[in-house]
Amino acid sequence: MAGNPTPAPSGPITPSGAAVSRAPRQKLALAAMLFAVSMTFIDQTIVSIAAPSITDELGLSASGMQWVVNAYLLSLAAFFALGGRLSDLFGHRRIMLIGTLVFVISSVLCGCVPSGDLAVTWLIIFRSTQGLGAALMFPAALAVVIAVFPVERRGRALALFFGLSGALTAVGPLLGGWLTAWTWRSIFWVNVPVAVVAIVLTVLARIPESRRHERLDVVGAVLVAVGMGLSVLGFQQASSWGWGDVATWACVVGGLVVLVLFFGYERRTTHPLIDFEVFRDRAFTVDSLVLFFAMLAFVPVFFFSSVYAQVSLSASPNQAALFLLYFFIGFAIASQWGGKILDKRGARPAMKIGCALGAVGFYLWAQKLTDLSMHDQWPYAAMAGAGIGFLLAPASTDAVNRSIGASYGEVTGITQTIRNYAAAIGMAVFSTVLAHVSTDKITATLQARGLSQAEAEATAGKVAEAVTGHPDGQGPSGDGPVAEALRGAGDAIRMDFAEANQWVFYGMSIALAVAFLCALAHPGTRVTEKVPED
User: Fold this and answer.
1) What pLDDT score does 2 carry?
2) Cβ-count burial of 47 within 10 angstroms (0-12 exposed, 13-18 middle, 19+ buried)?
3) Domain membership flag for residue 75
C-alpha cells in the first residue's frame, strides 16, 4: 500500500495501567460507529418504501424518482475511495464526525424539499450530498473499529459491525412504512436523533487519533468519480434513452475509458488514491468479486420487492415493509452463523454457503412472485436473505484483514467502492429490465382489451411507471376507451408487473450464482498474524 502506514494499536486503547477502562471504551466506540453507519444502511431502503408517496405529492416521474434513489448509491460509489483516503490523511475520528454532519444536514434538507419544478433537482442534489457524507463516514467508522480492537479480537468485532449494520437495513422498510403514514418527509428527519447519539458516543469513547503525512491524490479522486458517474448514468438512462441510443453507450463506454485512465494514473503516482497492489492477494480479489456480484442483488432487492408488493399485491407501505422483514429474518440469523464459520474455518466456506443459498433462494422466490401472495413467498425471501447474511460479513471482514500492516481507510474505501458501485449498477440494469418487460406485457394486455397498438403502447409506458404512486394499476383517469380498458385491466396489469419482476429476481439469482463461482477460487487461507507493536 502507499506510504508507510502507522500501525493500528493492538494493545489497550487506554493509558498504560488503565486496563479497567479498556472494555467500556471499546464498546462505546463500536456502539458509536454502529449508530453512525446505521443511518447509511437505513437510507438505502427507507426511500424505496416512501417512493409512491413522494412521487404522488411532488409529481415526480418514474425516472425522476429512480434518480432520487440512485443518486445516493451513485454518490456512495463515486466518493468511497476518497472517504477512505481522507480518513487516513486527517484522522478516522475527525472524518467520521465530518461525514456524520454532512449526512444529517443533507437529510434535513431532503425533508424540506419544496413542491414544484425544483423538487426533483433539490432531492437529487441533497441525496447526492447524503451519499457524500456516508462515503466519508463509513470507511472512517470501520477504521475506528479496527484501530480500537486488537487483531485477536477483531474478527468478532468486525463480524458484529458488518452483521448488525447490515441487519439495520431492515429498520428502513419498517420505519419507512410507519413514518410514511404520517409524512414521507419524516423518513429524512429521523436521522437527526440517530446522528446526535452517534456524535455523543464518539466523544465519550475518547477514540485515539492518527494521521498519515501524505498528499491527497486529487486527480485520482476526480477521475474515479467521473468514471463511475458516467458509466452508471449510461446504465440508468438506458431505460429512457434506449440501449440503441448513442448517448447511452457514450456514457457507458466513456465512463469505462475514464476508469481505465484512472487505473493507469494510479499505477504511476507516488501517493495513489487506490494502491492496486492489494489485488495481488488472490483472497482479497476473490472477496471483492463476491461482494460485487452479491451487491448487484442486495441493495436493489429492497426497491424492487417493495414496489412489487405495492403494485402487484396492492400492499400498503406498512405491509410492504413487513414483506421485506421476511428477507431480514433470514439475513439476521445467517449473519451470526456466517461470523462463527469465519472465526473457525475462514471466509471461504461461509461465502460458498451464502452464494449457493442466495442463488437458490432468489430463483425460488422469482417463481412464486406470480402467486400474488405474501404468505406463499416468505420461505424463499428468507432463504435469499440468509444467503446474503452468510456471505456479507465474512467476505467484508476477510478483505479488511488482508490489509493488516497497511492503510485500513484505504482498503475499506476500495471494498466499499466496489460494493456500492455494484449496487448502483444493479439498480440501473434491473430498472431497465423491469421497465421494458412491464411495458411489453402491459401493451399486450391492453391490446387484448380493445385498444389500438398506438394507444396501448402510449398507455403502457405510463402504467409501467409503477413507482408513481398508483399501485392499483389504473393509471390515467377519465372517460374514453383508454380509461375504460384500464379500469377493467387492473388485475391483469398486476400480474403483468409480477411477471416482469420475475426477470429481475432471476437476474439476482444469476448474480449470486456467479459469486459462488468466484468463491470457489478463494485460497481458503486465514489471517492470524498480529499487528506489529510500536
Assistant:
1) 43
2) buried
3) yes
Residues 253 and 203 in one domain: no
Tally the residues of the chain.
534
Would you say the pTM of this structure is higher than 0.85?
no
Residue ranges, the chain, pLDDT below 70: 1-24, 44-45, 48-49, 151-155, 163, 166-173, 239-240, 317, 403-408, 462-490, 527-534
Q: Identify the pLDDT of residue 158.
A: 73
Residue 490: the pLDDT is 67
Q: Cα separations (Å) of 27 from 24, 167, 460?
A: 5, 19, 54
CA distances from 173 to 46, 306, 383, 414 (A): 5, 8, 19, 28
∠ CA 358-318-333, rounded to 5°: 35
Condensed to tens digits (0 to 9), the pLDDT of residues 358-398 reads 999 999 999 999 988 888 899 999 999 999 989 988 898 88
pLDDT in tens, 338-354: 877 887 888 899 999 99
For residues 412 and 141, the answer to whether their CB atoms sit within 8 Å is no
Q: Do residue 89 and residue 133 come from a single domain?
A: yes
307 and 364 share one domain: yes
Name residue, grid cell 396501448: 456
- Regarding whether 255 and 178 lie in a shared domain, the answer is no
240, 272, 304 - which closes a domain: 272
Q: Which long-range contacts does 314-318 make (Cβ < 8 Å, 24+ apart)?
A: 314/471, 314/472, 314/494, 315/374, 315/471, 316/177, 317/49, 317/50, 317/52, 317/53, 317/176, 317/177, 317/180, 317/181, 318/177, 318/178, 318/181
Note the helical H segments in 369-489. Answer: 374-401, 408-448, 453-463, 481-488
C-alpha to C-alpha distance for 237 and 191, rounded to whole angstroms:
30
B/e letters for 242-272, b = 16+ CB within 10 Å, e = fewer, are eeeeeebeebbebbeebbeebbebbeeeeeb
Same domain, 236 and 251: yes
Q: Give the domain extent around 181.
A: 20-216+273-439+496-519
52 secondary structure, DSSP code = H
Write down which residue in 272, 291, 314 finishes a domain.
272
| Within a domain: 81 | yes
Q: What is the DSSP letter of 406?
A: S
Task: Answer yes or no: do 114 and 253 share one domain.
Answer: no
Q: Do both 145 and 268 map to the same domain?
A: no
Q: Is residue 92 part of a domain?
A: yes
Q: Is residue 231 part of a domain?
A: yes
Question: Domain total for the chain?
Answer: 3
Cell of 227: 468514471
The separation between CA 404 and the C-alpha centre of its own chain, rounded to angstroms, equals 26
CATH number at 319 reads: 1.20.1250.20
- Write the DSSP string, 318-356: HHHHHHHHHHHHHHHHHHHHHHHHHHHH-HHHHHHHHHH
